[in-house]
Amino acid sequence: MSEPTSEPSSAPGEAFAPHQAAIADLGAADLVQLLTPEGERVEHHEFSFDPGEGVDEDETIRGFYRDMVLTRRIDTEATALQRHGELGIWAQLLGQEAAQIGSGRALRPQDFVFPTYREHGVAWCRDIDPLRLLGLFRGVDQGGWDPHDGNFGLYTIVIGAQTLHATGYAMGMQRDGVVGTGDPERDAAVVAYFGDGASSQGDVNEAFIFAASYNAPVVFFCQNNQWAISEPIERQTKIPLYQRALGFGFPGVRVDGNDVLATYAVAQAALQRARDGQGPTLVEAYTYRMGAHTTTDDPTRYRLSEELETWKLKDPIQRVKAYLVRNGLADPSFLEAVDDEAERLGEHLREGCRALPEPDPRSVFDLVYAEQTPELAEQKAGYEAYLDSFEMGAV
């Protein structure tokens, strides 16, 4: 079906206007793309890549390449560590680096992130030490990084719950007067990351309702990687996910999630819209999970190898590399330097993971409340007595 016509507008972010047509082709409909899989720059009628006034564009793109290479190295090293018994489990992001780095680098320091359990690339952008992530999956750390150190919340295992947390936090920002003031150093937004599988959860839909009702400054960033564990996207929705936003009363946009330039541009526009007090946006980053859902999953049981091979041709890192090399923006020394840095990062993660200290069992009672309650103190005393009984028995 053809798109409905409308009067042209010069307002920024016009592509957020709701789409009325039902579209059968879930893979190509209304996709915002600025860099093709072959590494060629293309124009879009509404969005353009703009790293900011006075910022070198070529250097920014080289930075994106470095970010994605290092993020993938974190992922592959963690997967290998799990296979060697050093981690209990790991949630891979292989193939989703552009969606995470593009959106992560579009954030301002005052913005706040509510992740799922797969946003390793966004954590990298927010300067979270990857070893903190490994400690969580190793079971020696409850994910206890300070959420206000980088404005990056704790990983959320309950599917979709973080969208409600994000909406509530965004409503708090409104009441704190840090939305729509016109001060770029003050105005802030919230981004909630979730996957296509989580979009079927009630929490996500409730978050949409509250965000729309209160015009909350939140960007719902859905990484549609085609598979909710073993459930394909066509079993969850009959229309593109971004079009769901229309039913809740706020705009949605679909972006090529393997295109780091387009993802940056769309996230940048959506975040600015939220900071300006114009309310929520749903961004659907159309990408593909090239790895397993987690290291307990075997994707060969439910998807065809041909599908994976097709998406490998759209690899987000290779398309940026092709662009840089084709345009003489990355010589062999630059590429080698990035690879060398990835090697050093891998070594750091291997050694650092094995050296992570075992936690004191008593620490489970710490940081539960700002002030410890009598009930919790009683439980802790009982648990300490239980542990002491083993020590006395050993003597």
Would you kindly provide a written description of the structure presented here, covering whatever features stand out?
This protein has 395 residues and is an alpha/beta fold. It has two domains: 14-354, Rossmann fold (3-Layer(aba) Sandwich); 361-394. It contains twelve helices and eight strands. The strands form two sheets. It has a six-stranded parallel β-sheet, sandwiched between helices. β7 (252-256), α8 and β8 (281-286) form a beta-alpha-beta unit. α1 crosses α2 and α5 (161-175) packs parallel to α6 (202-214). The longest helix is centred in the N-terminal third of the chain and has 27 residues, at 57-83.
Short description:
Helices cover 41% and strands 8% of the residues. It is an alpha/beta fold.
